[in-house]
């Protein structure tokens, strides 16, 4: 349980110079920007990795013979999505990488939905 402030004690606030305050605010903004960039990079890599894993699973289903004529186009779309997900690691420009990732997700989702609808 908190007792609060005792009688006779004073709260002493240190006077901070304006330059020191501005440096601290800039350091805070820099750390937030780095955190946002890292979070975006981790999200992008996780999404790309998910498309790659799904493409590998689909390729294994093709290898073990779980393919029919109706499923083959959807499997192919999933494999193209995985290939695009893998290619996001090779693209250097941020805007192009985003477009490739969106295409990878679109192909993967189309392949997954198609496989589920065919079954």
What does this structure look like?
The protein is 73% helix and 0% strand. α1 runs parallel beside α3. The mean pLDDT is 89.
**Helicity level, as a percent range?**
over 70%
C-alpha Rg (nearest Å): 26 Å
Number of helices: 3
DSSP E strands, number: 0
**Strand-residue fraction?**
under 5%
Most strands sheet: none
Order of helices and strands: HHH
Overall mean pLDDT score? 89
Morphology call: elongated
Distance between the termini: 62 Å
Layout of strands and helices, then pairs:
Layout: H1 18-63, H2 72-87, H3 94-118
Brief overview:
This protein is mostly helical and 119 residues long.
Name its key features.
single chain, 119 residues, mainly alpha, 3 helices
């Amino acid at each position: 349980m908190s007792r609060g402030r005792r009688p006779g004690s004073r709260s002493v606030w240190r006077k901070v110079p304006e330059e020191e305050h501005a440096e601290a605010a800039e350091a805070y903004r820099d750390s937030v920007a780095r955190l946002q960039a890292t979070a975006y990079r981790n999200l992008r890599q996780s999404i790309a990795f998910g498309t790659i894993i799904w493409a590998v699973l689909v390729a294994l289903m093709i290898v073990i013979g779980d393919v029919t004529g109706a499923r083959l186009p959807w499997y192919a779309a999933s494999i193209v999505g995985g290939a695009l997900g893998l290619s996001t690691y090779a693209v250097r420009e941020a805007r192009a990488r985003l477009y490739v990732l969106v295409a990878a997700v679109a192909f993967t989702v189309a392949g997954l939905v198609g496989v589920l609808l065919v079954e």
